[in-house]
Amino acid sequence: MTRILARGVIRAFGDDVNTDYIVPSRRKKETIDPERLRHFMFEDIEPDFFASLTDSTILCAGTNFGCGSAMEVAVTVPISAGVRAVVARSFARTYQRNAINNGLLTLKADTSALPANEEARIVEDAGEILVEAASGVTVRCDPMPEFVIDMIRHGGLLEYLKAHGRFPEQRA
Amino acid sequence: MPEQTMAEKLLSRACGRLVKGGDIVICRPDFAMGTDGSIPMAIDYLHSIADPSRGPIDPKQLVFAFDHYGALSGPGALRLQEKAREFALAFGVPLFDVGEGIGHQLMIEEGFAAPGRLVVGADSHATAYGALNCFGAGIGSSDLAGIMLTGQLWLETPRSIRVELRGELQPFVSAKDIALYLARILRADGANYRAIEFAGDGVAHLDLDERIVLSNMAVELGAKAGIFPADETLARFLTAESRDRSQTVAPDPGCEYVQEVTVELGSLRPQIALPHRVDNVVDLDDAETTPVDVVYLGTCTGGRIRDYEEALEVIRAAGRVAQGVEVVVTPATRRINQELRERGMLDEFRRYGARLESPGCGACCGTCGTVLPGQVIMSSANRNFKGRMGDATARIFLGSSYSCAMAAVEGVVGRRTKGAS
Ligand code: SF4
Q: What is the DSSP letter of B141?
């Protein structure tokens, strides 16, 4: 059965997009409210980014997306701006971790063929996760551990803990 | 029993079962540090699912340090800080308030980081604790909230890169140059999802302050942890501070590494990271000379005693700072500041016209003061992204404390006199 995990317009970025580019840390000292901070998304590298957003967005990037500071607003702000998923060749570990903890789908894939500014959807089909662009370009994403998928399904770490009361039991 | 890396051993201990690289573990950190930059959001996460009267399950597992914000940060920041302060007071969380210093250095100075432990921080440079033969890793605010709620944390066990340090550094070359060189050859994502484990005879030639620089900057290569082995140097430090050193770990002979890198310390030249990337590194000798406005000596990477000794050595030899260069001294902690004062080093800096700031993160990420538009900064910090110090038109160069002081003396970043030390 095909399940749609996300859909949105692809917005493309290059390699090494750091968290200060996603939201400048100087903005964070005024507020941590994502609805206020989202106006400053990518302001140092693409000043009109937030204003140019239409609906749901899928961010696509090269390697090492979210490098730099571990600040979590770099995840909550895109979520608030309508980013439904980030697909990148690789993520900085702190970013992917924060994303998972907040229920933001972060998928590793070869993004080079994905067309910018095109509608796309992300589907799960027979255990495979695919990004399908409107023009027909399809790329396969790396699989994710079950615990991680479960957490994203719940909407993040805290929602997971609320539902289960604790972390899962460990295998000995 | 399979051979394990230090990272695998440390996480096995933290979760109570034998794990290998790639395993997801649920573990109990010995301590978790939060800063004024990350705690307010953690409190929001906690209270998004629990009653606001709910405090942390084990307040003594937590350490709060207010280092990112100060009097210059504006009312919004101070409100966030106050929220964290109220939480700490209400629930008995140990708190280092404004002026005590940078959380990461306090975790080391105050004995929270110790061999064998898992010590995390809701701030990326928590990798610094690895210098003490423990697993130090950065986490997010949601993780911190998870720890407040359950005492536990999920982690994926990293596979390790072995970095062998061989021989001894030349004069005026320092640990910061090794760190920048590693960024140069491995790149900013070269150790992503990995632990870096330092090894080799060169380790013995590095004191604890130098090791902290390397562990601290491991995260600039994407690493989850940067771990040093336990040795005589560490033992001496722990004994002097009456700290527990019973749980040291060493890698098993024959354990598996994903990559091995060797650095010949003897042939390493001073390195410099050019704007706006930490891995945009060249030999200092090859850097184009650029007039410098500010020389910044501080942060969790370059704000320890050794850094100021190195900087003063260079400035003293020249007898002056070049005209028009502002030298800013922001010691990492009150304790460091104290020692600098007692040794007359603060006075010395003052005589050379330096601006002395109170301990903390200072202008490192633009939250406590900022640089001015278009300024050129030579900094002993760890990051030089566009906008990092509060202004997107400023250009930040990163180097050792020696190289920073050299820039202060010569008035330029890069070498006027090529090849001279
Ligand atoms: S000194 Fe700079 S890098 Fe270190 S914790 Fe503070 S803001 Fe972060």
A: H
